[in-house]
Amino acid sequence: ARRGALLDGAADLSQVQLTFSDLKINSAGFGILDVGFKSPTEVYAIGGAGLLLGSEDAGKTWTRDVEADNIPSNFYKVKFFKDKGFILGSQGVLLRYTGTGAGGK
C-alpha cells in the first residue's frame, strides 16, 4: 500500500464501513492513550498513571496489569515489531515486552 493509503485500497474514509460496539473498560478514570496489537487477538491498551491493560480475545475482555501501577509514569505509545514490544512513557520510561502474554501467562 502507498504511504497514507488505506490497506483495503479505498481512496477515502467515506468508502470504509466500520462497525463499533460499546465496551465498558475499568480504567480507574485514567484515559487510554494508545492501543497496540501484538497479534490479531493479543492487544494492549495504555494510558495515564501507569495504566496497562491486556486482552487475549481481540478486546472482548481486558485484564489490568497491576504491577504497572507502581511505575511512576504516564504511558504514551505502545508498539510491536513481530515478537518484540515496547511502551514509551514519561520521564524516560521504556518498557520491553517479555512474551508473558496479556493475561500474565
Folded structure, characterized:
It is a single chain. The radius of gyration is 15 Å and the shape is globular. The chain has strands spanning 32-37, 43-47, 52-55, 63-64, 75-81, 84-89, 94-96. It has 105 residues and is mainly β. β2 (43-47) and β3 (52-55) form a beta hairpin. The strands form two sheets. It has a four-stranded antiparallel sheet, with no helix packed on it. Strands 5-6-7 form a three-stranded antiparallel sheet, with no helix packed on it. It has a domain at 28-96.
Mean pLDDT: 81
Q: Would you report the number of β strands?
A: 7
Sequence stretches where pLDDT stays below 50 over 5 or more residues:
1-8
**Total helix count?**
0
Category from helices, strands and their pairing = mainly beta
* Sheet with the most strands, sense and barrel status: 4 strands, antiparallel
**What distance lies between the first and last C-alpha atoms, to the nearest angstrom?**
35 Å
Strand content: 25-35%
Protein name: Photosynthesis system II assembly factor Ycf48/Hcf136-like domain-containing protein
InterPro entries: PSII_CF48-like_dom (IPR028203)
Pfam families: PSII_BNR (PF14870)
Domain Photosynthesis system II assembly factor Ycf48/Hcf136-like: 19-97
What are the salient characteristics of this protein?
PSII_CF48-like_dom; single chain; disordered N terminus; 0% helix; mainly beta; 105 residues; 4-stranded antiparallel beta sheet
